[in-house]
Design goal:
This protein is an alpha+beta fold. It has helices spanning about 55-65, 160-175, 215-235, 280-290, 295-305, 310-315, 320-330, 335-355, 365-375, 380-395, 400-405, 415-425, 430-435, 440-455, 460-470; strands spanning about 5-15, 70, 75, 75-80, 90-95, 100, 105, 110-120, 125-130, 135-140, 145-150, 190-200, 210-215, 245-250, 255-260, 270, 275-280. The structure holds adenosine-5'-diphosphate, zinc ion and magnesium ion (MG). Zinc ion binds near residues 25, 37 and 40.
Length: about 475
């Protein structure tokens, strides 16, 4: 490759507030067309906006989630444009004074991708095109849904940088309760700005902005396509023009949508109907204090303090609920590795088979912590622990009670096992003979016979030791 790609992102995220940003309409995905609208969000003349305090709070949290600075002063502006999905013919946004400034996310290769700022704005409606009737209809349910736009510096140099960043920021926003980050539902939408320059150059080329990317995979395909398209233009002595393009998922290509607007095209001016937002240092400190521990910090704790392998730590942090459950369990029983194993293998198996999520689980982290302790203390065997987990998962209940009721408590008395071993040896003389002649596989068969007679409460280690001894 003779060209170095340079990429910057603009990410729109819907905030998880109960109501819209400037009115009291419900903020929820879906619903019949135009059922969640009122005079304010449908742009009736004479109505006044009222800022949703929780939207401000969540936007500030997005700043903390990305190590940015939350500003004491931020203010709203009008961005004017005519399009049928925007009934007011202007969008309320923040232009000069965004809610947060700075911040960064470190991606897989250790490089920091810097965030320029995060601002608050309102979403527009949706146009529904009916090709058969040849008409377009407007659904205003999404009008006035609170958004943040996260604008990065052009720090990305590869598809992998971008994809890792998008996955990490989505996870952090979910942890902070800012956004559910469902790209396929459009609650998180990524616009990608791409330019290329000759390798070794420091002067950035002209960029194209690609809209409409609704998955991490689509982001990768769109970037690859766009790099090749621009390289071909430059190779043929042409110049890349600054424009907005749309990615077509079916064709895997991008098409020009419109030439890039400049800020002055939008006739920005201060929003006269909303006073500036003032957050005192105390307000900001209080919001910061309400943040949960972020995934990257948990990852560090799990790998460095708890000694978990990186892959396991990544699996645990991939869901906040799962990670919270783990943290509660290890607070009670700091057996980091065993609790991680039981959750990642057995609990996950049960979750996958039932299509439940960790929030639906009928037992508590304390129950899981106790179950692991029962297993490591030799009260129940490892296999019995799996069975107990399944019963707890299906019906709830306390691990010790389940163990008692189902005969899972291990019998650690060797004399009873010895009787059973003697009986098995006597009844299987041929097999014993064959084992002694070197057929090692027979051992497993004989063990099976012992456990079958001894029942679920048998201590497999004692049984194995006794059988080995008797076969000598
Ligand atoms: P504008 O104000 O014209 O929209 P910005 O400076 O706000 O431009 O940048 C918008 C986005 O484009 C940001 O994500 C930024 O990182 C990215 N960007 C800026 N210049 C380039 C470039 N030459 N190549 C790729 N991305 C760029
Ligand atoms: Zn409304
Ligand atoms: Mg911009």
């Amino acid at each position: 490759m003779r060209y170095q790609p340079v990429i910057g992102l603009e990410i729109h995220c819907e905030l998880q507030t109960d109501s819209k940003v400037f009115c009291t309409c419900q903020n929820e995905f879906g619903g019949s067309e135009n059922t969640r609208v009122c005079p304010r969000c449908s742009g009736m003349p004479g109505t006044l906006p009222l800022i949703n305090q929780n939207a401000v709070r969540l936007a500030a949290k997005a700043g903390f989630a990305t190590d940015g600075t939350v500003n004491n002063y931020s203010a709203f502006d009008r961005k004017n444009y005519f399009y049928p999905d925007l009934p007011k013919a202007y969008q309320i946004t923040q232009f000069d004074h965004p809610i947060t400034t700075g911040g960064y996310i470190t991606v897989f290769n250790g490089n920091k991708m810097r965030i320029h700022h995060i601002h608050i704005e309102e979403d527009a409606g949706k146009l529904v095109h009916d090709d058969y009737e040849g008409i377009s209809m407007a659904d205003y349910n999404r009008c006035g849904v609170p958004l943040i736009e996260i604008v990065t510096e052009p720090d990305f140099r590869s598809v992998e940088d971008v994809q890792d960043f998008v996955e990490k920021i989505a996870l952090r926003l979910k942890y902070a309760g800012v956004c559910d980050a469902r790209m396929e539902q459009g609650s998180m939408r990524v616009d990608v700005n791409i330019s290329i320059m000759p390798v070794g150059s420091t002067e950035f080329g002209t960029r194209a902005e690609i809209k409409n990317l609704n998955s991490v995979k689509a982001i990768g395909r769109a970037i690859e396509y766009e790099i090749n398209r621009q390289a071909e233009i430059l190779d043929n002595g042409g110049t890349v023009i600054q424009e907005t393009r749309r990615f077509n998922d079916n064709h895997g290509d991008t098409k020009a949508l419109r030439s890039k607007e400049e800020a002055h095209d939008y006739r920005y001016f201060p929003e006269p109907d909303i006073p500036p937002v003032w957050l005192s240092d105390e307000d900001i400190a209080e919001i910061k204090a309400s943040m949960p521990e972020m995934p990257q910090s948990r990852f560090k704790r799990y790998t460095e303090e708890y000694g978990l392998p990186a892959d396991d730590a990544n699996l645990i942090i991939s869901s906040k609920e799962f990670s919270d459950f783990y943290d509660e369990a290890v607070k009670i029983n700091p057996d980091y590795k065993q609790i991680s194993n039981l959750m990642l293998v057995e609990l996950n198996r049960n979750l996958n088979e039932s299509e439940k999520t960790i929030s639906d689980v009928a037992f508590s982290p304390a129950d899981l912590a106790e179950l692991v302790k029962m297993s490591t203390d030799g009260v129940v065997s490892k296999n019995a622990a799996k069975d107990i987990l399944k019963i707890m998962f299906d019906n709830g209940g306390k691990p010790m009670e389940i163990a008692k009721n189902n005969g899972f408590i291990m019998d650690n008395d060797a004399s009873e096992i010895e009787e059973i071993v003697n009986r098995v040896i006597a009844e299987n003389a041929d097999s014993v003979e064959s084992y002694k002649n070197g057929n090692q596989k027979i051992f497993g068969f004989l063990m099976g016979q012992v456990i079958r007679i001894a029942g679920k409460g048998a201590n497999p280690k004692i049984a194995k030791d006794v059988l080995t001894e008797k076969l000598k």
